[in-house]
Design a protein that fits this description.
The chain contains three helices and four strands. By secondary structure, it is mainly alpha-helical.
Length: 132
């Protein structure tokens, strides 16, 4: 899960089912938040769990949607898709990572991503204080 311009949360799940993702979603995402996903049916109960939910349908070749006609495609999953692409590129040189070690690599990548974003916001805040 990733917030646009914000933090990412990566968890390995033994089995990807609604019963497995519901507690993770509820512990990570505030109720009432708009959650954007692809059409995978595991996300179908998000509205029942208290979330606003919009999807793009990749199987219908839909990757982004402009719902209000302003030319900006608000509904997409490009943020998380881009994150997965970065993760795959980072893991590629580490061929043959064991299942036991993979959570450590994922945790490190999550930490680096989140620290980088926090660092940028901190720098902007400090510069704002210094220049005001």
């Amino acid at each position: 899960m990733i917030q646009r311009g914000g933090q990412v949360v990566i968890r390995m799940l033994e089995n990807v089912r609604q019963v497995m993702i519901q507690p993770l979603i509820q512990a990570t995402i505030a109720p009432g938040t708009l959650v954007l996903t692809d059409e995978y049916d595991i996300y179908g109960r998000l509205p029942e769990w208290g979330y606003n939910h919009k999807t793009v349908c990749h199987s219908a070749r839909e990757y982004a949607r402009d719902e209000d006609g302003d030319g900006f495609h608000e509904v997409h999953v490009n943020t998380i898709e881009g994150f997965w692409s970065l993760l795959r590129s980072w893991l590629r040189p580490h061929r043959g990572i064991s299942q036991e070690s993979l959570p450590l690599y994922l945790g490190f990548f999550e930490f680096v991503h989140n620290a980088k974003n926090r660092g940028k916001r901190l720098l902007e805040s400090l510069l704002g204080l210094l220049l005001s």
